[in-house]
Design brief:
This protein is of the alpha/beta class. The chain has helices spanning 19-34, 77-94, 117-134, 148-155; strands spanning 39-45, 100-107, 140-142.
Length: 162
């Protein structure tokens, strides 16, 4: 399940969660439990961190966010703190379900507008480890890349489960 503008657009403003969108996912999780379907929650669609949708990203400075350009998302400490709050909300609301088997941090992380891919790797390490410290349900943590070699770099991180 992608959190993205055309599906579950959970956070239209910083720390402002759209409760109607959240209820949609509540219902999807309930149906997954009923029909024995397993879900992977994809928290960031790569387009939110590149030219495609940066203009609607709540982390963008034009909306009061801490980031002037998409690559700032990976290195800005305020953005990391805000994203950790989002992680706490998502885990508290949906990770209880055994049918939510994984949390994917970013879909195709290498297709974002980043400064250096090492920043993306460091961000993943921080967020994956954080999830493991706050998630009592042991939900798996993953991410993905379009480029196999970059994906392998993420896959080697201790907090990334697969």
């Amino acid at each position: 399940m992608w959190f993205c503008p055309w599906n579950i657009f959970l956070e239209p403003g910083l720390l402002e969660y759209d409760l109607q969108e959240a209820r949609k996912l509540d219902q999807i999780v309930q149906l997954a439990e009923k029909f024995n379907i397993y879900l992977q929650l994809v928290l960031i669609y790569h387009g939110m961190l590149n030219k495609a949708n940066w203009h609607i990203n709540p982390y963008n400075a034009i909306h009061g966010g801490p980031c002037k350009v998409p690559g700032d998302f990976f290195v800005n400490k305020a953005a990391q703190t805000l994203f950790k709050a989002r992680l706490r909300y998502i885990i508290a609301r949906w990770a209880y379900s055994a049918n939510v088997f994984a949390i994917e941090l970013i879909n195709e992380a290498d297709l974002t507008d980043y400064m250096e891919f090492q920043h993306v790797i460091d961000w993943h390490r921080t967020m994956a480890n954080y999830i493991h410290t706050i998630n009592p349900y042991n939900t798996l943590v993953t991410s993905s890349c379009a480029d196999f070699k970059k994906g392998r770099l993420l896959g080697k991180l201790r907090g990334i489960d697969f």
